[in-house]
Every structure is written in structure tokens, then in C-alpha cells.
Amino acid sequence: MSDAGTTLNRKGNASATLVEMCSVRLAQTLFGVPITHILEIVGAARPQPVPLAPAFVGGLVHYRGDVLTTVSLRQVLGLPPRDGPQDILVLESSGGCFGLLVDSVGEVLTVSSDDYEPNPSILDERRRALFAGAYKLKESLLVKLDPERLDPQQLSAAQAA
Amino acid sequence: MALDELTREFLIESQEGLDRMERCLTDLEERPKDAGLIGDIFRSVHTIKGTTGFLGFKRLEKLAHAGENLLGQLREGKLVADGPAITGLLKLLDGLRSILKAIEVEGSEGEGEDAELIGLMEALQAPAKVQVKQAVRVRAGTRHVPASSDESRPAKAALPAPPTSSSSIAPAQEPIESVSQPVSAPAAQAPVEAEADAAKPRTQATAVGTAAESTLRVDVTVLNRMMNLVGELVLTRNQVLQATAADPNMTLLSRRLDMVTADLRETVMKARMQPVSNVFSKMPRIVRDLSQSLGRRVRLQLEGQDTELDKSLLEAIKDPLTHAVRNSLDHGIELPETRQEAGKDPEGVLKLRASQEGSHVVIEVSDDGAGIAVEKIRQKAIERGLITPQRAAHLAERELLQLIFVPGFSTAAAVTNVSGRGVGMDVVRTNVEKIGGKVEIDSRTGKGTTLRMRIPLTLAIIPALIVRSLSQSFALPQGALSELVHVPPEQAAAAIEWMEGAPLYRLRGKLLPLVFLDRLLMPGGDHKPSTERENFIAVLDADGRRFGLVVDGLADPEEIVVKPLSAVLKDIGLYSGATVLGNADLALILDPGLIAARAGVTMSAGEEQAHAVEGETDAEAAKKLEYLLVEAAGRQAAVPLADVLRIEQLPLSRIEYIGYRPVLNFEGQLLPVEDSGGVLAPIEDKSDRQIIVVVCREGNRHVGIAVSHVLDVAAGGDLFEAGTSQRTGGVTLLKDRVTGVVDLGGVAPLPMVQNAPGAWSELAEAVR
What we know:
The structure holds 2 protein chains of 2 kinds.
Chain A: E1 18-26, E2 29-34, E3 38-45, E4 57-63, E5 66-72, H1 73-77, E6 86-93, E7 96-102, E8 104-112, E9 116-117, H2 125-130, E10 131-136, E11 141-145, H3 147-150, H4 152-160
Parallel strand pairs in A: 2-11, 5-7
Antiparallel strand pairs in A: 1-2, 1-8, 3-6, 4-5, 6-7, 9-10, 10-11
Chain B: H1 5-30, H2 35-55, H3 58-75, H4 83-106, H5 115-125, H6 134-149, H7 165-189, H8 200-208, H9 210-214, H10 220-244, H11 248-271, E1 273-275, H12 277-280, H13 283-294, E2 298-303, E3 308-310, H14 311-332, H15 336-341, E4 348-357, E5 360-367, H16 374-383, H17 389-394, H18 397-402, H19 412-419, H20 425-434, E6 438-444, E7 448-456, E8 461-469, E9 472-477, E10 481-487, H21 489-495, E11 496-499, E12 502-507, E13 510-516, H22 517-521, E14 535-542, E15 545-551, E16 553-561, H23 567-570, E17 575-580, E18 586-590, H24 592-599, H25 605-615, H26 619-623, E19 625-632, E20 635-640, E21 644-651, E22 655-658, E23 661-666, E24 669-674, E25 690-698, E26 701-707, E27 709-716, H27 731-738, E28 740-741, H28 752-767
Parallel strand pairs in B: 2-4, 9-18, 13-15, 20-28, 24-26
Antiparallel strand pairs in B: 1-3, 4-5, 5-7, 6-7, 8-9, 8-16, 10-14, 11-12, 12-13, 14-15, 17-18, 19-20, 19-27, 21-25, 22-23, 23-24, 25-26
Helix pairs in contact in B: 1-2, 1-4, 2-3, 2-8, 3-4, 3-5, 3-7, 4-5, 5-6, 5-7, 10-11, 13-14, 14-20
């Protein structure tokens, strides 16, 4: 990842807290998930599709003796599906564990809370519900993903509404 | 409220002690002189008292002490364990239990006075002993003795101090002290129990007895975790077995792994097993209390108490079982007078029986009571609009009985009065079905009723058939699978019939609705027609709804470990879970019931029965008949299965002829062989082909029937009664269109049996 080295944008503010985010690139956007919410990263997985499941379900994977439901980030964002193996971030939310299916996981970036800004108002409604604001990096924006908002239960409730 | 380790230990131990006490008390009623039983009860109460002493549960100690005094008298033989005494002790038991409960929930004994109960304990001793404070005791006695004989009054009512008791507390407490004096003296002479307080821990150990030495208490969560891990191991083993199948060196090792895994699984499962006596032992008390309050006389028989069942399942059947027992007492067994009038023993018998049948445990609750008035069910069902009068008139007794499980049927007192049973029967069924079990009921008017629950041994690991569809694997639980039919592409056009868009298959003459799994899972997709691919029909029975699930392929059956699905996927309403297969693939577990519902195979009980009635003029008679379907010279015929002794495949050359009549020299006996189908006719180039002879019983002779194929065994009638009496298809179809179903003495198409008597005499002469 070319912008990996340009992460830190500290302004020397003493009250700023540093957050470690696992970066994920999907299409043009750089996303980040706080590593405190990540249980494990499973590489090169091929989830088993579930017929008749809601579209956002990326399939099932076997994870430590349990069967894990995955959410396809591509599907959620309305991007075309991708062939081939994908990486899975095993996330913990209040509803339990689930997998987030992404193209590939990048490195862990340390960002400062000083650089955080909430979702812009011009963002479309669906994305506004999914994203939890963004961190301003030197060369790009890092969109923060909140496991709670991506929880399958949550998504299905949002879909029903 | 968090409890310290010591208190928790004390609670568990005390509860076990009280359970034992309860069992002993009900036994004691039958054998009031049994010193061993009294000793056991005494020990239970004494242990509680001893331990409370240093845990500081004063209220509990006081109550246990009062009970101990009474028990001491019983033990010395100064008192006889009569009805009131046992009732009193049972109340004591309830009292102790409720305090223990309070400790468990709140961490303290709670407020409340047990003066009334303590008074009762004393009053029960009164006739035998202690004249010291006669006046006080008489007061206590007159107040409380009536309560003990008044059985309908709930025992617990005596516990929370009623406002009036405040006056009796003071006098009631005093005598305890004085009574304790004489009683504790003899107790001290007792060999084991009455050592000094300091020795109490040892006393407990001896009280628990030999069982404690060979057993160990394990937290259920640990066991659950172990079960999960074993499940994982089973999966890994499956994968190893598949991966190493080709390598001869590894085969031996993986075989060993296989065996060890199987043993380990069994052992862990066994660790979770508990004898049904854990649940059965609650019943004597319930039966006792209930029969007294209902004025019944009931003898309870327990059988198969050592049958074991998974702990979680055992918990799950506790309620349904209690319900069934209550029902039997309330509505099954009649009042003694009524029984006498009917010429029965005034004492009714309620039998609880547990036994293992394969992978199921069967628990039966049977009584010799009045049975269920089927006619009244019929009326009620019509009244409630569950069935039409026309249908009702045709329904067989068994089918009518099943109606008591229909939810709408079992509400309100109306049913209690009407059917004599049925209060909450749907609850019994729901609870049992929730754990994968089944409930059946059988009743004969005037003779009694039997409720049968079939409970699977375990839930976590089930045998399943792996099927393929949409180039994915799915697991079908074997429990619902009754058979498999293969329809190759070239036969599909003829075998799968369409009725205005509804695919059907004639399974032994009955129309079986088909569900194509691929079309169900991917509606609107581009699916190959059945004439261009292999079709495997898995015939499923989902709670009496029979249908065929058409899949593209079959893999081996596997023992699968059921993994729960997330709520989102469960909500789809097709899958009951997921599993990891031997090839490391994930497979979704299909739920036959949900598939049936989704595909519209939803025959309501009414419809089903109507269906059955239309097809069958005499359900009773047809039900008994099962046929062997045979084919001779292109024609199908049926032989009553009950008459079939064996089926022999043998070369044509074995058939010999006596005159024109073919016979078979079979193990030194001559068997006349009928061949109206011309199966035995010589065919060029195939002089020694194999033929099949069905050996049947006809009267007290045996006859052989030569056929070209044995097709199957077909049931005429409700082979699939399955507790719901639901069945599909009619016998008419079987009779009229597919085969002429005939019995051995019947007519076409194989009327050979009619000739047999003649043939036999001819044969006998020829042999002579």
C-alpha cells in the first residue's frame, strides 16, 4: 500500500488519543476497523454461499469450531462481487461474532483522534448509516467502519425498515 | 448474589439430601417400619442441621432441629410413621427447600418464621412423649394438627408467618428447647451421625456414602465445552480420514484415530448422561399429593429407572412428564368408587416406564383408568370446527385421539370435562418436539391410556445424509429420511408426473409431492430439466407430511456435528444449522419441516385426514395390511407381508416338476410352486437364469410363488401414523391403478393360491 508510510498526522495536541486501525482497501476507498474490535484475520477464505440468504451475507466460514456468518463489504457498498479468495476480518459486536469479507487486508495504521471528523452531510443515506466518520490522513481519507453497524442482525433490521 | 464456595457446596449437598429424603418418605409410607429408610431421612436432615450450624443459617438450623427431633422419635420406634407424620415431614421438606432456595437466590435465609411448621413437628411428637409443657403443646397441636390432615392446603402456605402466628411464636419456640433435651441424648448414641460438631465434615462424607467415592461433581459448562471439543475432533477425524484414504501408511493411523475419537465421543456423551430416575424420583411425591387431594387411590410403578439420557434432554422432559402424570391422575384414573363399580381394583396403577430403543429413549406414562372417550373428542372436534361431521364420521379412533394434541383443542375446562384428557397436551407435544422427540397416545375406553414419548439420546451429533444441489453440499437429517429413489434422466419423463405445474412421483402407487431443491433454493434460476440430469428423490417425513426432495447427487451418510447458525440465516426458514464435512466443506443442514412449509406441502390435520378418508373406505382394516410388491411377467401383484416367510433367489434348475406341477425341494421339504405369471417358462439361451420364489404361509402349509422381481414392501393404510395420524394418498390408487392388491387367497393377477390345496393333495399322492 503506497500511502502506508504517510499515516501519522500528529499535531502535537496533548489531549489527542491514538487509535490503531486495520486498513482495508476496497475499490478507491481506504477503510479502517479499530483493531480492538478484531478477533482475528483469516486470509484467503472461500465462504460457502447460503442460498436465499439476504444479499449482504457473503456466506459461511468455519472459524474455530463455529460456523461464522460473513458480511460482504462489497455487497453492502453495492459493488460488483469479486471472484477468487477474499480476506475475512473476524469482528466482535454486541450481537456476537461475524466475519467481514474484504478484498484484502492492509497494514495497521495509527491515527489520532484529532484527525477524526464525523460523516459529511452530503454522503448518501445508506453509507451514512454504515460509516462512522473518517480520519484525515496526509494523502487520503481513512473511512472508519464500526462493527456494530455492520453486524448482520443490524443490517437485516435496516433492510427490513 | 454471589455465594462462597462453601455455601454453594452446602446447597448442592443439601438439595441432594432432600431429594433423597423425598424418595425415602414416599417409600416409607409403604413400609412404615423400615428402619433403614428412617435412618436415611434422619441423616439427611441431620446433615443439614450440622452444616447450618457453622454456616450460621439460624432459621434453617432451627427448623432442621425440630424435624430431627421428630425423626429421632420415629427412629427409636416411639412413634409410628403414619400418614400425618409423613405429611408433616413432607411439609418440613418443603419448608427446608424454600429456605435453601432463598439462600440460593438472595444469599440469606430471608425473613420469615417457621413457628407453625416447628409447632407441627412438635405436635406430631406430642402423643408419644414430653408431657413437660403440655399446655403449650396442646395449643400448638390444636392449631396445627388440622392443617396437617387438610391435604388440599398447599404446604407452603404454612411457611410465611401469618399475622396470627405472632402470638404463637413465643410459646412455640420455648418447647423446642425443652424437647431438644431428651431427643438429642439418644441421638448422641447413634453410631455415625451424632459426633461432636467439630467432626461434622466427616459425618457428611459418610452420609453421602459410597457413591461419593466413585463420583465427582463437574460443572455442566465444562461438560458442554468438552462436548464441543469432541465435536471438533469428530470433524477433524472426518477430514483426516478422507485426506489419508489413499495413503496405506496413514490408513492404519487414521483408523486408530477414528476408533479413539469414537470412544472418546461416547465417553463424553456418557458423562452427560443421567439416569431418568433423577426425574422419576420427583413423581412419587407428586402422585402422592395429587392423589390425596383428588381422592384417588393410586399405585405408582417405576420401571427402567437406570435408563440414561443427556442431562439437557432430561431437564427438557421434566415438565411434559409431570404434565402427563397430572393428567393421568386428574382425568385418567377414576375415583375408587367408580372403579369398583366398573369391576376394577379400587387402587389405580400409574406406570412410568423408560427404555432405550436404538438411538431413542422411550418414556411411557400409562394408567389403567377410564381411557379417553373418543366419541366426545369427535363431538368436540366438530363443535370447534376442526373437522367436518362427514370427515369425523369416518375417522378411526386412533386418528381422533391425535386431535387432543391440536393446540385449539386443549384449552379450557371444556376439554377436561369432555375428553377426560387434553389439558395442555399440545404443550407436552411442543416441548417434546422441541428436543426432536415425538409423542404418541394410545387409549382404550375403560382400560386406560398410554402416552409415549420418544426422545433422541443426544442432540449435538446426528447422522445425516449429504446431498448435492446447486453444486453445493447439504445435510439431511437421517431421522426424517425414509427412503431414497433414483430416477435417471431417461426415466425422468415417465416417472415424474406433472399435475398443472405440481411435480409428483408415484411411490408404490401413492402420489408423492416432489420438491426440487435447486428450484426451491434459487427460484427463477436456470435449472436443468429433470430429463437432463440424475434425479435422486429423498423421501422425507416431516411430522407426517411426506414429500420427495429432489437433489442432483448423493454423497455418503456422515455423522455431523450440528453448529448453530446466526439469527439472520435462521430467519431464512430453511436451515436448522450448519456443519463441517469430512472434506472440510461447510454444509447447511436442511430442515425437512421448514422445507415442507416453504414448498407448500402443508396439509393440515383436517385435510390430511379427509384425504385419507376419501381414499380409504375402511381405515381400520386397511391399516393392518402391508404388502410385498412383486412382479411376474410384467404384471404387479401384492402379497400380504404377514404371510411371507422368506424370499429365495435360486437358479431355475432347482425347480423340479411332478407331472406338470413345479415344485421346489427345499431343505428336504417339498414346496409347491405357483407360476401363473409364467416366470418359469424356459427362455432360450437362459436355461439357468436366476428366479425368485416368495415362500408364503397359507393356512398351515407353505407355498412358493415364482416371480420375476420383488419390488418393495408397500403399506396399505397408515403406515406413517407417527403420532399425528396424517397420511397421504389413498389405497384406492394402489388398488385401482397400480396393482391389484390381493391377499393370498384372492383373485387376479396371481390367483395361484386357490389352486394350492388341490396341488398339495396331488403332490402328496405323487410323492407317495
